Design the sequence.
C-alpha cells in the first residue's frame, strides 16, 4: 500500500510515534535530532537524485528535526518519492579520500544498525567506507517492507578494494534505494543509525565477574 507523501506522510509519523531502542553494544552514529550532527558520525551531507519521474511529482529526502515520538526522539530522515517515481538518496559522513577520522578497529566496531519507523516497499542500502581514494569497502543491506524494524549490517560482509584500512576510515556513505533493485514510489522514515561494537575480552571478563558476584550475593 502506498503511504501518503508530504505533510500527510509526516502526520502519519507523528501519530505512530518512534518507539526505537538501540542495542547495548552500540554507539549512536546519527539520531537526526540536529543538523549538523554532533554525534559519532559528525556533520553529514544529504542529497537526492530522481531517476525517473513520469508524472513530474518529484520527491523529498530530508532531515526532519521536529518529529517528536513517544520515546522523545526528535528527528528522522524522511524519504518520499512521487507516484511512479524512482528516487535515490545519499548520506555522506566525512571526506572521501580525505584524512582519517574514525578508527573502527580501536572502537571494536562490528557493523551498523539501522532503525526504520516505516518502509512501504523493500529496497537496498549500499554502505561504503573509504580510507583513501581507491581504498574502499562496500556492502548491501536489504530493507523489508515493514513498520518499526531494526536491521543490522556486519563489517564481515564488506567487499574490500585496494588497501582499505578499517582503522583509518575517512568517509562513510549510505546510498538508499540503490541499483539494481530500485523501488518505485518509495517512502521510508529512518530514525537512528548506530555503530555496533563487540566488547573486548577484558570487558567480557569483567561482565562475567560481575555476574558471578551477583549470583553469590543472591545465595
Sequence:
Amino acid at each position: 500500500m502506498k503511504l501518503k507523501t508530504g505533510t500527510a506522510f509526516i502526520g502519519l509519523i507523528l501519530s505512530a510515534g518512534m518507539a526505537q531502542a538501540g542495542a547495548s553494544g552500540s554507539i549512536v552514529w546519527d539520531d537526526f535530532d540536529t543538523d549538523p550532527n554532533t554525534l559519532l558520525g559528525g556533520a553529514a551531507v544529504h542529497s537526492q537524485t530522481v531517476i525517473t519521474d513520469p508524472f513530474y511529482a518529484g520527491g523529498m529526502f530530508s532531515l526532519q528535526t521536529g518529529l517528536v515520538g513517544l520515546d522523545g526522539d526528535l528527528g528522522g530522515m524522511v524519504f518520499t518519492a512521487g507516484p511512479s517515481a524512482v528516487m535515490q538518496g545519499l548520506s555522506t559522513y566525512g571526506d572521501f579520500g580525505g584524512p582519517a577520522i574514525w578508527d573502527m578497529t580501536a572502537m571494536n566496531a562490528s557493523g551498523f544498525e539501522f532503525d526504520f519507523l516505516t518502509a512501504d516497499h523493500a529496497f537496498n542500502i549500499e554502505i561504503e567506507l573509504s580510507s583513501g581514494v581507491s581504498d574502499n569497502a562496500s556492502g548491501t543491506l536489504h530493507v523489508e517492507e515493514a513498520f518499526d524494524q531494526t536491521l543490522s549490517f556486519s563489517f564481515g560482509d564488506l567487499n574490500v578494494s585496494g588497501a582499505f584500512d578499517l582503522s583509518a576510515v575517512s568517509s562513510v556513505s549510505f546510498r538508499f534505494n540503490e541499483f539494481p533493485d530500485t523501488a518505485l514510489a518509495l517512502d521510508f522514515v529512518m530514525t537512528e543509525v548506530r555503530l555496533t561494537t563487540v566488547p573486548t575480552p577484558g570487558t567480557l571478563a569483567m561482565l562475567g565477574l560481575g555476574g558471578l558476584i551477583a549470583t553469590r550475593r543472591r545465595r
